[in-house]
Automatic annotation (TrEMBL):
InterPro entries: CheY-like_superfamily, LytR-like, LytTR_DNA-bd_dom, Sig_transdc_resp-reg_receiver
GO MF annotation list: DNA binding; phosphorelay response regulator activity
Span of domain HTH LytTR-type: 170-275
CDD domains linked: REC_LytTR_AlgR-like
Keywords, alphabetical: Phosphoprotein
Entries under PANTHER family matching the protein: STAGE 0 SPORULATION PROTEIN A HOMOLOG (PTHR37299:SF1), TRANSCRIPTIONAL REGULATOR-RELATED (PTHR37299)
Origin superkingdom: Bacteria
Protein name: Response regulator transcription factor
Residue numbers bearing the 4-aspartylphosphate modification: 73
SMART domains to which the protein is assigned, alphabetical: LytTR, REC
Length: 276
């Protein structure tokens, strides 16, 4: 994930004192996109930042850019709007979504993926306004939550130069909450595509930075990089099991899977653990 997409702040930005809502319009029919953009731009606080003609292009855009609201057609070639929404919503925090379609049989399924609203074509301006008002209200509440979360992160985030006695915590966003994690409770860090996962004694959390970036934030003598994709907490090792080609697997508390030790890190692990 490129640095341009930020998840530790709210997406709204200010223009001459007015909070602007950044919108992505996704529809495979250009006339439908044009009409929707025309209706949206009647609102002074709405800015259409991009259009996409299918779900794949929308997901590509969202890899590097941030939006507050997506107006998403349901019936599209390739990925449907519902399939696209499920991918977008798989890693919170995520944009608000309003579905737009010519058919009403998808309404129940749309709300199953936490849609903000469901608009039928042709779009009625009054109905669109109600949907936008819902988005405004939810985004303002989210802004207050993130503001609180930022204050928490300022209090508990550990810096490299932190001295003895300073808090050693990292804050993650999960299920609409900011959760501080004690370094001592971190069992393992692992890569997940362009992101990373933090395994703790209380569960696992997705983190919107690469493993290498995460490892720079979480500095602890007990953490050992056993593989290019895994860093484990030595204090939570239950067993080290021989594997093929003189390699090893680590069994950790609170983690079901065995963790591989690369051959280049085997000697260091054996020395640290005083393995015969």
């Amino acid at each position: 994930m490129q640095a341009g997409r930020r998840y530790n702040r709210f997406y709204l930005y200010s223009f001459r004192g007015l909070l602007m809502i950044r919108v992505l319009v996704v529809d495979d029919e250009k006339p439908a996109r044009d009409e929707l953009c025309w209706l949206l731009e009647k609102n002074r606080d709405i800015k259409v930042v991009a259009e996409a003609e299918n779900g794949m292009k929308a997901l590509e855009y969202l890899k590097d850019e941030e939006v507050d609201l997506i107006l998403l057609d349901i019936q599209m070639p390739g990925l449907t709007g519902l399939e696209t929404a499920r991918q977008i919503l798989s890693h919170p925090p995520y944009p608000q979504i309003i579905f737009v379609t010519a058919y009403d049989q998808f309404a129940i399924e749309a709300f199953d993926v936490n849609a903000l609203d469901y608009l039928l074509k042709p779009i009625e301006e009054e109905r669109l306004t109600r949907g936008l008002n819902r988005a405004r209200n939810r985004l303002m509440k989210q802004d207050e939550l993130v503001g609180l979360g930022q204050r928490i992160m300022n209090l508990v985030s550990s810096e490299k130069q932190a001295g003895p006695g300073d808090l050693r915590k990292l804050t993650v966003y999960s299920d609409g909450r900011f959760i501080p994690i004690d370094f001592d409770n971190i069992v393992m860090l692992t890569a997940e595509e362009k992101h990373s996962l933090i395994y703790t004694t209380k569960g696992s959390y997705s983190y919107r930075k690469s493993l290498s970036q995460l490892e720079e934030l979480v500095t602890d003598d007990a953490l050992f990089k056993c593989h290019r994709s895994y860093t484990v907490n030595l204090n939570y090792i239950e067993a080290v099991e021989p594997w093929f080609n003189n390699a090893y697997l680590i069994k950790l508390k609170y983690v079901d899977d065995r963790i591989p030790v690369s051959r280049s890190h085997t000697a260091a692990l054996k020395e640290i653990l005083h393995m015969d």
